[in-house]
Each structure stands twice: as C-alpha cells, then as structure tokens.
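Follow-up to my post from last week.
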Amino acid sequence: MAVDTLRCRICESDFPAVASGVCLRCFGPLEPVYDWEQVAREATREAIERGPRSLWRYAPLLPTAAPPDAAAGPGWTPLVPAPRLAQAVGVREVFLKLDHTNPTHSFKDRVVAVAAAKAAELGTDTLACASTGNLGNAVAARAAASGMRSVVLYPRTVEPEKLLATAVYGGDMYAVNGSYDDCSRLVVELAGELDWAFVNVNLRAYYAEGSKTLAFEIAEQLGWQTPDAVVSPVASGSLFTKLWQGFEQFRRLGLVDGQSPRIFGGQAEGCAPVAHAFADERPVSPIRPNTIAHSLAIGAPADGDLAIATARASGGGIYAVPEDEIGANVSLLAAMSGVFGETAAGVTLGALRAATEDGALGPEDRVVVLVTGTGLKTPQIIETRAGIEIEADVDELLEHIGVTA
Ligand SMILES: Cc1ncc(COP(=O)(O)O)c(C=O)c1O
Ligand SMILES: [Zn+2]
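User reply:
Got it. Predicted complex:
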C-alpha cells in the first residue's frame, strides 16, 4: 500500500514519506504509518492466499505497491520441521525457516525488495548500501535485475565468497579499510551529498518493513497459527524488532489465532553489544567487533535498544554465543536437519541452545529457528574433508568399506 507519512518510533513526530533516514527531532528510527481500516479490508486470509508466491502476497502490509515482477520476488521460503534437532535440544518441535533459499541466499533479499520498490517509486537510478556481506549481494542482484546502478561498501575483511556474490552482478564495489561501522558512517555522509537510494540509510524505514514478511509467512505456513517462540540472529536489531511487529500486526488484524511468540536473539560473543546490554539491563553502548560471524559484526547497532525492548515485551531474551561454538553449531544444524546455514545460523542455534539450557524454552515449546543465510558463503569455519583417495576399482572400495568379496 502506498503510505504518505513516516512516524518516529521514539518521539512519534510525523514526516512526509520521502527518502529520509532518521527523525529530524530526535534521530530515532522512522516507520511507515498505515491506514489500518484499509489494511483490514485488503489483507484477509483469502486475499493473501490468492496472492503471488513471494513476499508481495503481503503488499497491503508493506509501504509500497508491489512491483510488476511481484510473482518472481523473494520470500515464501520453506518452513520445514526438524524433529531430530528438536530432540537434540529438548523442545517439543523445531521448524526451520529456510531463508537461505532466497535468490541471493539470505533474508536480505526481502528488505532490498521493499527498498528497491520505493527507490523505483522515487525515480532513483542508483541502489547503494554499506554491507557486512549479504546485503551487498542482494542490492547488486536487485539493481542488475531492474537495470539500476549499484554501489556497495564492504569492510575489507568480508568473506571472499560474499565479494564474489556481489562482483558477479557487475556493480561498483568499495573495500573499505575499516569495520562495518566505518562503512556505515561513510554511507551516512554520502547520503547527505547524493540523491541515491541508500537502502539501509535514507530508505531504512521501507527496507526494515521487508523483515516483517518473515513473521507473516511463519504464521501463514503454520496454518494461521503462531509458534511459541522464534529464534533469530541480531546485528543492527532491525530483523529482530520487525519480527515481533509482524506477529503483532497479524494478531491485531485477527489473521492469527493465539498470542505473538516470544522472540529470542543471538549475537556472537565477539560482537554482542545488544546481548550484553540486555543481560546488564542497560542501554546499548557501541563496541569494536572481533568475531568470525562477519555478517553480524555491527558494533553500533541502530536498533539495538529497540531489540532489547522487543525481547522484554515478547517475553524472550538475547544471548551471547561463544565464538568457539559457532562452527560446532553450524555442524550440529547440518547433522540434525540436513540444512547448511552460515555463521549467523550457528549463532542462532547457539541462542536456541542457551534458551533451553536456562529453561526459557523447554519440552512444551514449538519453536521456529531462522536460517538467514547459506553456509556456502562462510566455508572458512567448517573443517572440510576430501574423502578417502582410491583407484576406480570396486575391490579396493569394498576393502575400504570393510566388506571382502
Ligand atoms: C545472514 C544474516 N542474518 C541476520 C542478519 C541481521 O540483520 P539485522 O541487521 O536486521 O539485525 C544479517 C545482517 O547482515 C545477516 O547477514
Ligand atoms: Zn523522533
């Protein structure tokens, strides 16, 4: 739906729905204001079920009209049961939301889809971002598909697989000698100079709304029911806060039965400003990241305090996951479910395990775990094996297997 107002989430000031990053009064995050009577008329279960098999089936709850190629959009990813994982961690049921099956193999295709639709509405010809890795892939791909220019700034330490998965689309790339937070500061400064669409700066209010579609899909795929809990990784905190908002919007519209789920989050110990502030019951203070979970390495998280408020309001929590458990968690997820997630998924699984260990989740709970990115982009953390070298000879093979002919 087209919206004409953005409202500050902190001081509630209203602004016109153009490309503006933060509240001019208090620097708080902005979000679109919907006409809820119109949303209620348009977003019925039947209308949604008739919609495209992409996130655009929820267009009445998004701040732009669906683009012409809505049917080919990201989203509508599988939600699959993982009974062996549920048993291993000690909860009633686990469902995995396979968001690494999006076009560029992470959930970032969702946020970029909405930001790019707004950029087209504004007539902008360049999509740009600061990225910890995955966002750049999604921006470069979407720009290529719509004939726009893309400009991506990365910290120089990003995984080579993520660079490749941006480079292939032919856009402009800058490898910054610094952290993600340095890249982020650079794009904020650039946004003051250029009228480009910086998806996570001046289009952040629209971009962030894309993450709500994860909540919408989970509820619809469970037969218009809510799970007891959702476990998510936390970097800037945007995904985490928007998950809760998505479930709350569905509940208020009467689209789901049951309460909204408790939302649990994970951060890697080497970059856990939100988890530590949650534990210490204080506001988030910026840190300098030092983690193998590069995609989550944001030391000054824009929505960190809102993520803490979300964890408390929903009855969830945010955990710091030890660095040396992240790789083991990725392997555990693979061995128990057949799903190969990236470091962020290792952190998410660590949060699930921490929540079961401290009793926040248990045998009563039906839990959805987000797999937000693919393991093939972060192979460095997994010990690979070449296999036993043999001649192309069946007797030799049988001998290795331990069967004598
Ligand atoms: C794979 C993956 N999962 C989760 C996140 C966290 O997103 P947010 O910044 O909305 O907290 C990111 C962010 O880059 C990511 O790449
Ligand atoms: Zn404000």
